[in-house]
Amino acid sequence: MRLPTREELFANTVQLPNQAYTALGDAADWLRSDWTPTGAPLTDEQAAWRTRMWREIGNATHAINRAKDRHD
Predict the structure, then answer these.
(1) Looking at the chain, which runs of residues are DSSP E strands?
(2) What is the pLDDT tens value at each position of the chain, 72 positions in all?
């Protein structure tokens, strides 16, 4: 059984954070989507949840970028 090289380890390690980054972008797209019923305001609870999600998606994408920057 051949063990991976360090270069292969790093290349493969970056793939999953890239997938997570894409998934976070998809989640942000859902937050930007139209809400039903159209034109109806969000409840305070819904608005607070959306704000938290925006913040945490931003935190997660920044963390992924920081991790990848350290690899380059």
Answers:
(1) none
(2) 999 999 998 888 888 899 999 999 999 999 988 777 787 888 899 999 999 999 999 999 999 999 888 655
